[in-house]
């Protein structure tokens, strides 16, 4: 059976979770004529979610599926062109669904920010997904689409201008209002717990090319710290006077971007170097804020990966947001982000890509990005790349997302800084 002959275009797995509900709501408004179904462990809870979605979703089928029952995931994957999943932590629950989609030749999109899970997905299922024609696309939310797509947009602009290849490239989070989702917090805790007991995993996380398909083919720039603070002027003249601090999700995002370059056969260039920071302003206290923020992030990452096992599980669970929880509707609506990605090419040309979106980055904005990723895989198949296997947003659907996202309220533009 070909993908187009399947019963559904898209199945949303995890529709009863907090981000799952937001994604279902978005799909009910933006899905157009897509054949959509909702899946999860409890059909009663899914039915209750469907009742909140309005007329367009009233006939969406309900599918019972459970990560602890691989046969139900296999049956789900065989019925649809695309599975979109919000069920995390992915290192704990995600691989059986990846396995089902890889075996069935079914495209897949998730929200993971867990490099260890992505590495396991690559190691176990990349080759099989290539053989069956499946696209397994990780990190399709705020982690890591703004990172991945701004770099890809720069590449497209620079290619069109004939301005060479990307060299030193930096993403800067210029504004951010929102919180960390319970799912993200749970994913980080699971990652820290695993790394605290596994020195090899800690080393893997610290490798800037841990997600690359060929480690030996990557350039050696020496240390590429993910958590550092810098003067803005060292990144771009336009940021002179500003200070930047470590951006916590750089640990995941940078590796996704580097994997995109490798999967696409290094179109960004063999000397492409990438880092991420967040702006902390230009006041007299900005250097202190940059240093403190970076220090806190480094301590959380370092101490978390080495010493979390010494803390009582009940204490850790009590102080972190719970999966399935999230902010009020007002807080979600008032959230926003703006990122700017600067690059200097090997010909000396300078460019900037800016991406901005309304809505809490970890919730409302992420639901839009994930929903659009799923619809891109399901409805715009002729515009997708020819790559198969365990992919990244840019390597799987970069051109399609550049077309789709502006209509979804996401602004993305590139400018020459000459």
From TrEMBL:
InterPro entries associated with the record: NAD(P)-bd_dom_sf, Saccharopine_DH-like_oxidrdct, Sacchrp_dh_NADP-bd
Domain Saccharopine dehydrogenase NADP binding: 11-136
Family: Belongs to the saccharopine dehydrogenase family. Enoyl reductase subfamily.
Matches recorded under PANTHER family: SACCHAROPINE DEHYDROGENASE-LIKE OXIDOREDUCTASE
Protein's recorded name: Saccharopine dehydrogenase NADP-binding domain-containing protein
Organism expressing this protein natively: Mycolicibacterium komossense
């Amino acid at each position: 059976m070909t993908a187009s002959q399947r019963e559904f275009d898209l199945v949303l797995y995890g529709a009863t979770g907090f981000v799952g509900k937001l994604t279902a709501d978005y799909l009910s408004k933006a899905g157009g004529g897509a054949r959509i179904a909702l899946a999860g462990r409890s059909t009663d809870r899914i039915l209750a979610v469907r009742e909140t979605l309005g007329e367009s979703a009233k006939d969406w089928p309900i599918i019972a599926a459970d990560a602890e029952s691989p046969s139900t995931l296999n049956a789900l994957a065989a019925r649809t062109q695309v599975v979109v999943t919000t069920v995390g932590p992915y290192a704990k629950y995600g691989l059986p669904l990846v396995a089902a989609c890889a075996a069935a030749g079914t495209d897949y999109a998730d929200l993971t920010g867990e490099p260890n899970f992505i590495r396991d997905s690559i190691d176990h299922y990349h080759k099989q997904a290539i053989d069956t024609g499946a696209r397994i696309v990780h990190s399709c939310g705020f982690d890591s689409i703004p990172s991945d797509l701004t770099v890809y947009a720069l590449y497209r602009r620079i290619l069109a201008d004939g301005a060479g290849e990307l060299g030193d490239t930096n993403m800067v989070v210029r504004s951010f209002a929102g919180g960390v989702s319970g799912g993200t917090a749970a994913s980080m805790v699971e990652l820290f717990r695993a790394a605290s007991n596994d020195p090899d995993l800690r080393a893997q996380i610290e490798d800037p090319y841990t997600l690359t398909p060929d480690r030996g083919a990557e350039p050696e720039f020496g240390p590429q710290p993910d958590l550092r603070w810098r003067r803005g002027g060292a990144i771009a003249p336009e940021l002179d006077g500003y200070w930047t601090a470590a951006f916590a999700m750089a640990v995941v995002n940078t590796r996704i971007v580097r994997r995109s370059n490798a999967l696409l056969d290094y179109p960004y260039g063999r000397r492409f170097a990438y880092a991420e920071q967040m702006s902390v302003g230009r006041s007299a206290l900005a250097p202190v804020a940059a240093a403190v923020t970076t220090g806190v992030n480094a301590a959380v990452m370092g101490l978390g990966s080495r010493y979390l096992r010494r803390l009582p599980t009940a204490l850790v669970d009590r102080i972190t947001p719970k999966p399935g929880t999230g902010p009020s509707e007002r807080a979600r609506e008032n959230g926003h982000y703006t990122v700017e990605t600067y690059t200097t090419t090997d010909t000396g040309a300078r460019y900037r890509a800016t991406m901005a979106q309304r809505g809490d980055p970890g919730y409302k904005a992420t639901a839009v990005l994930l929903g659009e990723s799923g619809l891109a895989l399901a409805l715009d198949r002729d515009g997708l790349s020819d790559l198969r296997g365990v992919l990244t947003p840019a390597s799987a659907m970069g051109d399609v997302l550049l077309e789709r996202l502006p209509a979804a309220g996401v602004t993305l533009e590139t400018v020459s800084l000459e």
